């Protein structure tokens, strides 16, 4: 995603603009499909499709924000603003990936803990429970 930020959207022709929008949609969809949706393939596909469609739908607004950010960075004297925008995008994507992995690790720990606890609790027919 950070690499796509290096492309300057200010002067592309219609074909280039469509290509970039589709590329953003595909990358967004793949990212969402990999990180969202749990272990079930249909949920991953649905998350990927929804993200890709949203990226395509809001591409014009995204390009406008992108251009405004680039101009603001230039006003503040930043050299090569698109490079910094690409680095920032890559950092945010990587931070999201790390947060997703940490959440998945925590979820696995909670599931393991729940299995251990369920093995220790015995339910009796009279409604009482006994810890072993």
From TrEMBL:
This is Uncharacterized protein. It comes from Arthrobacter flavus.
